[in-house]
């Protein structure tokens, strides 16, 4: 199984930290994408095994990306400081694992493996 992950995060330093962390643990990182537009372009050119999404991006909420991932049956987790991300990003985010921000390394890696199994 491919360990490719789409990383959608608009805060540069957080995106870089996550990218390095994921690569150190054997993941191939697509992105990071800082906007909905960039994320959707990446999704058109590659199909990740899983995705990590921030809820609010430079050009709006991540909702269109989450919907595109669902349509392609790509599981995703959230890395958000919002306690109830679905109140910001809509129903498509309800019940999705949120590893928080900043994300704990073990929790993030565990959540990625977990959603890939389902």
From TrEMBL:
The modification 4-aspartylphosphate is found at residue 54. Keywords: Phosphoprotein, Transcription, Transcription regulation. Residues 4-116 form the Response regulatory domain. It holds the Pfam family Response_reg. The keyword Cell inner membrane does not apply. The keyword Transcription regulation applies. PANTHER family: RESPONSE REGULATORY DOMAIN-CONTAINING PROTEIN (PTHR44591:SF3), STRESS RESPONSE REGULATOR PROTEIN 1 (PTHR44591). This is Response regulator. It comes from Ensifer adhaerens (Sinorhizobium morelense).
